[in-house]
Amino acid sequence: MVDLAGLYGQEWSEYAFTCGYSSDTYTADMLGVDADDVPDLSTAYAGEAIILRSAEGDITYDAWPRSRVRYCSTGEPFLWHPISADHPLTFQVSGELDGESTWAFLPAP
Questions:
Q1: How far apart are CA 4 and CA 88, in angstroms?
Q2: How many separate domains does the chain show?
């Protein structure tokens, strides 16, 4: 389980996922933000990212290789979700690739 506020800081109030082959303009349109604030994964199937937004509208993101962290195969990309210490994100850790595990996001039931 991952507490996003504990990992990234208390200033972030919402999160969303974006997936490989998603351009910055597509992601920005889907999330209602500026394209300069989100990653351009249009040529990177192997990449996925979590995007964080503060209550003031500040945006940041953390991109990962799909071989390490998988958000999009089980999550709902392009939707804002509240960050809550009461509801940490759950991941299933599986296998090892080059000595490192893959973390797959498991949505809440």
A1: 7
A2: 1
Closest C-alpha to 18, from 73, 89, 78: 78
| Per-residue model confidence as pLDDT tens for the chain (109 residues) | 888 888 899 999 999 999 888 899 999 999 999 999 999 998 866 688 999 999 999 999 998 887 788 888 766 788 898 988 777 888 888 876 566 788 888 877 6
Residue bearing tokens 């958000």: 71
CA distance 99 to 103: 13
Evaluate if pTM is beyond 0.70.
yes
For residue 53, the enclosing domain spans 4-106
Enter the tokens of residue 70.
Answer: 């998988």
